[in-house]
Sequence to fold (243 residues):
Amino acid sequence: MIELERPRDTGALFVDALGVYRRHFWTFLALGALVVVPAELVVSGLGLEQFSAGYDSTPRIAEAVIPAAVTFLVVGPLVTAICIHALRAVATGGAPGAREAIVNGFESFAPIFLAVLLAALGIVLGLVLIVPGIFLFVRWYFVPQAVVIERTHGVGALSSSGRLVDGGWWRAFGLILLVNLVALLVSVVLGAPFAGAAQSSDRAVWALVGSIVAGSLTHPFAALYSTLLYYDLRARKSAFYRP
Fold:
């Protein structure tokens, strides 16, 4: 059992997210793989022909941009939605309830996708000037949580996420940057043996396998962390919170 609606410092965010993830590791791994595996197989395996292509250590821009876009618009939000429902089940003292979390997560995906797509368009436009894009990325980082937990849709989800970050943008930026750097480091470490195998055999499929393994492991943890950070920000905004 874990209390959701309370402030957490940096250490508590990592400890609590890791604690939930570790206690229910196989469930969260399966939840991550449920989304990551088909997305990677379709987009990279079939679409980018990694099943049959040779290994290229310097891929073309499209080969990097397309998977990143799919991750931002589909994989990340969907894994987050599923993990939010699983985390809320854990918070009541039960098991993650994988089947219920999956059903509820997929039911939430349509409004999440619309809101995330709106956020992506704004961020891309903002990235033309660099700083506004980064500002908007942090401001709208909690759109999936706003849709699932607050049941807001479209622009309302963007506004809800923005209100949470108001007055604490730099703290949110630092904590978001930290978890993404940790996820990147873990992905690099996990993917290194597969990248080596891909290079030695000249078969991109090994790099694809590494990406699947890394994504299946890191996405659920990032989802748990970001959801606990969402609750942290909400608790700090609450009139009932007294430091």
Notes: The CA atoms of residues 105 and 152 lie 15 Å apart. The chain has a mean pLDDT of 91. The two ends are 23 Å apart (CA to CA). Residues 169-201 form the longest helix (33 residues).
